[in-house]
Amino acid sequence: MTTHPTPGPTLDFSSERGEKPAPERADLLGGAGPSEFGSFDAHHPPAQELLDDCVHCGFCLPTCPTYALWGEEMDSPRGRIYLMEMAEKGEIPLEGSFTTHIDRCLGCMACVTACPSGVQYDRLLEATRPQIERNVPRSRSDRWFREAIFALFPYKRRLRAASLGGALYQRLRPKSMDKLLARVPERFGRLVAMESLLPPVSVRDAFRRMPERTPGIGPRRGRVGLLTGCVQDVFFHPVNEATARVLAAEGWDVIAPREQACCGALGLHAGREAEAIERAKKLIAVFERAQVDTIATNVAGCGSSMKEYGELLADDPEWAERAAAFAAKVRDISEVVDETLADARARRHPIEARVVYHDACHLGHAQKIRSEPRRVLRAIPGVELLELPEAEICCGSAGIYNMLQPQAASDLGHRKAGNIRGTGADLLVTANPGCLLQIRKYLGADLPMLHPIQLVDASIRGVRPPEMG
Amino acid sequence: MPERTMEAPHGGTGNDAPGAATPPVAVGPELARAFRDVLPADLVITDEVGRRSYECDGLTGFRQIPALVVLPRDADEVAACVRVCARHGVPFVARGAGTGLSGGAMPVADGVVISLQKLRRILEIDVENRRAVLEPGVYNLEISKAAAPYGLYYAPDPSSQQVCTIGGNVAENSGGAHCLKYGFTTNHVLEMEVVLADGSVVTLGGPTGEQAGPDLRGLFIGSEGTLGICTKVTVRLLQTPETVRTVLADFPSIEAAGDTVGDIVDAAIIPAAVEMMDSLSMEASEAATGAGLTVDAPAALIIELDGPADEVEAEFSHLTAICERHGATRMHVPAEAEERQKVWKGRKAAFAAVGRISPDYIVQDGVVPRTRLAEVLTRIAEMGRDAGLRVANVFHAGDGNLHPLVLYSEAAGEHDAAEKLSTDIAELCVELGGSLSGEHGIGTDKACSMPRMFSSDDLAVMHRVRHAFDPDDRCNPGKVFPTPRLCGERPGPYRPHPLEEAGVIERL
Amino acid sequence: MTDTITPRSLDELRDAVIDRPGTIRIAGAGTAHDWAGTPEPADTVLDTTGLSGIVTHNPGDMTVEVWAGTPFGALQTDLGEHHQRVAVDPARAAEGATLGGLFATADAGPRSLQYGSLRDLVIGATIVLADGTVARSGGHVIKNVAGYDLTKLLHGAQGTLGVLARLVLRLHPTPQVTATVAASCERSAMAGLARRVADSPVEPTAVEWHAGRLLSLLEGSESGAEARARRLAEILGSDAAVLAPDDATQAWEAHAAAVRARSDDRAVFRFGVTPSELPRVLDALESATGVTASPRTGVATVALPADADVVATAHRRVAEAGGTSTLRQRPAGAALPAFGPAPASATVLRAVAASLDPDQRFGRGRLAPWLPLPDQTGQPTGVSA
């Protein structure tokens, strides 16, 4: 016997909690009444079939970072799917609580890994976020802050300028600044978060450019196009250099087109669909001209969004096929190197180190790439690979999340740092610049941190890995 | 068997049942304010979206929006919340991870949900005494993870162990695949701190199995949240066995697999676990986990032995010989722990994975005496055919605990037929001398079937005990016992247990 | 004038409870008549030994339903023919104790380390309440969570709350072989030695200290159990040896005899504390003799002088260590405290007792003072309706 939801008591707590009452549904939908898609608009709302896949079993709960922090149903994958369903039925508006809980999702996709029913939460979230961006007016300060992020991060030139200021600032930054910032009112928390995420970068690294072509050594395996990335190229330029060197050493010609720009991952994961689509088209065109066999990236977030270009552009007859072809060529650097391990050309020199590998969510959960980087690291003689407790839980970086939700990000950062310290490792490696920035913030100078490819590069070249002194 | 002529002091199925009698209570800003006096404001959830998120547990067919949800952070705050409920005469439901499959954590109308998800600390791992002290929100699997460095583990392992909490396990007396050898939650919980309906705090049980006075701990475990809220649990930890050997064996028929189990028992082998899956459930699970199940085999057994190395090796070869004798078509023996985990994942993810092969399904949970497994499976298959519905079977074969999964399509209008088939299966289990539930509990889902298994006197006595703990029906009212509200005025009649009819039963 | 009645069926049992007004003392074989609280004189003694025998035994299901008045030893003998057993071994079974009596007194023996007590093996029961209600809980299957586990309430109820008519138990296969390793060991060293046994992979069924020796019981297959015993003896070193079968039987019989020993001037005191507390608590009970102790479960049985102060102090000492204690035997006429300080949960116990047996017809006095005697000014009202 099944009962249908019994209406609960009619209560009005809104004035109590100082919350703005949600607008009447009719207002929200322009007076048209609940549409076929409930509170969503008609442009790709979360698909009913995908929502139906969730059987409410709760297996996702323990791996969800916000559920780990707060234990509230609304801030769990199961809860968010439930909210999407209610919105889809038109039972709740998008504005207000719905947006709050969807905004709080890190998009780490740990739930996708954990789900036995095969719920595609990634697709649900990517369908929901643009709905919010389109239909929910944000407060002025929120709007301003988001615009600021997207006006800065995807642009290498602007990032370089910022890094220049940052480098200067970091050098001149008075010690008293920490105390000062600690007293900043909470509403400026986001700015403080942004400040502290600025990585220590040398002006030289920030302005270095990748050579357009790095020839492979020995018999050629093929042509690899390298996504140099925006944040990666400015703040982690040495990672790109190491990537090119390792690929070349293994016999790949490495093509790094000058005109490439941001892949759109940050925007895509934040629901800025239109912007992401434009960036995707530009990048596809650039790599088509480069005529490469494989498109490699050393950034987990970029790889995950580029692999989804096919779906992103599926509606556009001019681009759909080209996007799918592009996506099919995309590989994470660890996949590329892993494939060559059986027939490795470059000798690995030993590096004696206890290494802990942190799975970037966009690599482990979104792309299901877990064993490849581990195999690549284990192929280095002397490396002892350690596993991290709570490995499936996000470090709190999550694209721009640590800037938008600084408190949650900070709690997760501390939690991750604690787990990392507990392993007693000499070195942390992870394949995403966002994770590196976030973890560095909470781990401080306790432990050297590298991208795995830098360790491989050091091993091939027979040098001490950078930062390990 | 005497006729039941005694007038029960409380008609367990009568009008005085909870739910019907609970008068409407005033909830609203005043109640919220009272909770905010004992909790930070953001831990008192009043908005509709938040409250609706708690309207059901793992069984979504039953929904009820609570008046409020509160998230206390420690035992004192739980007690304070219960006292607020007592003061305002409001019923409450304690909720762990909300993974229950019987609607046991479904909120009560006009009631409060007390979430225990902020009480997640492992308070102590006592290696010398082999026990762990836990807050109720600790995930079952976390206990074993925390104990592992000391060579210890916590034995009960429900399929949802990665997410279900020890508090929920206490409420449901959870079992798991390994309870055949090791027993259930009730055999592993030594001591509990419990908040009673009036907000007072008592300790049930003690530091050893030694008891002074009646076993109140045993009564509380499995009472589905109707006697109070446990806020601290002390469990026994066991030594990790020296050896674990697992075989995944495919069989040409369900009967062959069933006979294998019988022979294993007859050989005086007590496996740590004996699980059976049919081809439908394997198909689903394999799609979800890639565990290495043979999807076109009619049946498979996962059999695990554990213990001292020599003994296990000897029993294991005996065991595989029994499998071979019954025509096992493939035997996969995972070599490493990792591979073994994979096989287990294939088994444990089966319920949720069935979502991949059917738009909708109902997970049933019934028990028959192990020797009647073949009979019940045949009957289930017939009933499924009659209803025009597919039934997948995953079960703990060693102890006769079945989990038939009734597959249906809501869109195709099969819901009511599926509900009926599922209920009929549970009641069939009772008819065959078994039970309505082996581990998922009665909750809301099966309350109306209780009169099939228990007489009104039996239920009335349970009710008397419940009222001794909770005279005003404030702890999770409306669960376990049939109520007119849920079941209509006349829930199904009690059918005398076959044993009672005959005095003695012929089973073999 | 006390009247004894011996019902021979469930009907007769129920009728006896309804027809006899006043208080009832439930008696089985009488092996624990002097345990727990001193019973008040009762109007009727309800002798359960007429309710005897196996109701149904399904070897394939490894379950058995038994009348509560069945002598435990006879039950084990019957089950043994099918190579099955109830995996508990209380010492007083040898004196003819009934299953119901063992259950009501929560008695258990050395094998509780592995199997727990009867509460861990019972899967269903039929009970008769003071108002004549016949109630069933649990069932005939090992795995069952339908309804309250009311049966547990009668475990350790010492003949209060209700009368057990029938019990359903889960069974275990009888091991092919049992082997015993004995290691000489002072009481002060037993905890450390027992820890070594526990940390070894031999999985003992019982570990008991008695009379200067730590006995470890290994059960299992023919080759397995003996091999494990040898392995354990090796691990424990030169002071340990595998006992010859006769010596082993003798050692365990001596242990059981010590547990059930009666004397005219001493009381038997049983308690459980966390294993790490056990040595300290034993040391504190200075006048204790006849000690048997289970260093891995934390349970011990000792004899104390039959002196109210000594016994009260012992209860208090156990309670301070967080444990539980019960007086098991008291010399005739001795007024000794049966229990330690009442825990907070005694309020629940009283409420449960009031709901099941509001007039305290059954076993009045056995759980005193946790369950205080009813107001003496009014006569008990007999059957409540």
TrEMBL record, chain A:
One of its GO terms (molecular function) is glycolate dehydrogenase activity. Keywords: 4Fe-4S, Electron transport, Iron, Iron-sulfur, Metal-binding, Repeat, Transport. Residues 44-74, 96-119 form the 4Fe-4S ferredoxin-type domain. Residues 1-41 are annotated as: Disordered. Residues 14-27 have a biased composition (Basic and acidic residues). Its cofactor is [4Fe-4S] cluster. Its EC number is 1.1.99.14. It is an enzyme of class 1 (oxidoreductase). PROSITE patterns: 4FE4S_FER_1, 4FE4S_FER_2. It catalyses: glycolate + A = glyoxylate + AH2; (R)-lactate + A = pyruvate + AH2. Binds 2 [4Fe-4S] clusters. Component of a complex that catalyzes the oxidation of glycolate to glyoxylate. This is Glycolate oxidase iron-sulfur subunit.
UniProtKB/TrEMBL annotation, chain B:
PROSITE patterns: FAD_PCMH (PS51387). It comes from the Bacteria. It holds the Pfam family FAD_binding_4. Residues 1-25 are annotated as: Disordered. One of its GO terms (molecular function) is oxidoreductase activity. Keywords: FAD, Flavoprotein, Oxidoreductase. Residues 62-240 form the FAD-binding PCMH-type domain. Its cofactor is FAD. This is Glycolate oxidase. It comes from Actinomycetospora cinnamomea.
TrEMBL record, chain C:
Keywords: FAD, Flavoprotein. Gene3D superfamilies: 3.30.465.10. Pfam families: FAD_binding_4 (PF01565). GO terms for molecular function: catalytic activity; FAD binding. Residues 1-174 form the FAD-binding PCMH-type domain. Residues 376-385 have a biased composition (Polar residues). The keyword Flavoprotein applies. Residues 364-385 are annotated as: Disordered. This is Glycolate oxidase FAD binding subunit. The lineage of its organism: Bacteria, Bacillati, Actinomycetota, Actinomycetes, Pseudonocardiales.
